[in-house]
Amino acid sequence: MKLSNFTSIPSQCFLGEGPLWHSGRQSFFWVDIERGNLFEYHSATGVTSTRNFPHRLAVVLEGKDGSLILGLDRRLARFDLETEELEWLCEVEEDLPLHRFNDGKVDPVGSIWIGTLSTNFTEGAGSLYRVGRDLHPKAQLSNLTISNGMAWTEDKKTFFFIDTPTRLVREFDFDLESGQIQFRRVAVEVPEELGFPDGMCIDRDGMLWIGHYGGSGVFQWNPKTGQLLEKIELPVPHVTSCCFGGENLDILLITTAQENLTPEQLEKYPQSGDAFLVKVTVPGYKTSVAIL
């Protein structure tokens, strides 16, 4: 079954990513990585505001007391939305200036999981880190190329992860107390004709919703069987990520990109880089808040 009813939010991102529902503000956030733009869409008013940072801005997460945690280049920072004060927290891979953060999520106990890649997309150059209260990043996975989508199951025992070029969703045992993961199996293999799996979220039935770069949509997969269940068809080729939000957590905010499109393709797909809202029947979960 294909879903195609959507509302578009013009943002014309070069590389839209990092969607987040902030329940306290009742708004969606997302980023344009290369341009350093942070977007906030206020659900009650339909108004979008933009802030800019002189960095590559890869990740936006919810922090304590309504603040945001931002992934800027290779550093994490706390951002106060009222004062617009930026407080630097920690850095990874200081000796690798071509590297930057990519996707990031908060786990069920409030630690931040955030991955890196080389801006040359060097195979195996990236890693996945866990950052807890002590602000000392601990590598969880290495030899990654484009560290991307993450999700945890409701029982907090399983972690899903995507390294985009592999076209695999890998499933790991997740230990809630230690934060350690151990590879269990491949949950989903994405066929070449469906594009590359990118950002990901999980619904209350345990199904995975994944943005497919080059696949023109968000695909719903059953990680227990590896079966494709549904597609949200969008009028753009490069779909990058999605998250659940809205009052009932039954709205998907979907991010997209203009990068790697020719002028002719951009003319054919003029909504590339915009964000999209789609109502779904099975809601997701409230986003975890970082302990930082």
Keywords, please?
single chain; 292 residues; mainly beta; Neuraminidase; 5-stranded mixed sheet; 4-stranded antiparallel sheet; 1 helix; 25 strands; globular
Textual characterization of the structure:
- It is a single chain.
- It is globular, with a radius of gyration of 17 Å.
- The strands form 6 sheets. A 5-stranded mixed sheet has the order 1-22-21-20-19, with no helix packed on it.
- By secondary structure, it is mainly β.
- The chain has a single domain, classed as 6 Propeller (Neuraminidase).
- It has 1 helix and 25 strands.
- 2% of the residues lie in helices and 52% in strands.
- Strand 11 (99-106) and strand 12 form a beta hairpin.
- The model has no long low-confidence stretch (mean pLDDT 97).
Assigned CATH superfamily = TolB, C-terminal domain
Instruction: Give me the side-by-side strand order of the main sheet.
Output: 1-22-21-20-19
Structural class: mainly beta
Instruction: Determine and state the CATH class.
Output: Mainly Beta
Low-confidence stretches: none
- SS element count, helices: 1
Distance N to C terminus: 41 Å
Which descriptor suits the 3D outline? globular
The total beta strand count reads 25
Helix content: under 10%
**The biggest beta sheet, please?**
5 strands, mixed
How large is the radius of gyration? 17 Å
Percent range for β-strand residues: over 45%
Order of helices and strands: EEEEEEEEEEEEEEEEEEEEEEEEHE
Number of separate structural domains: 1
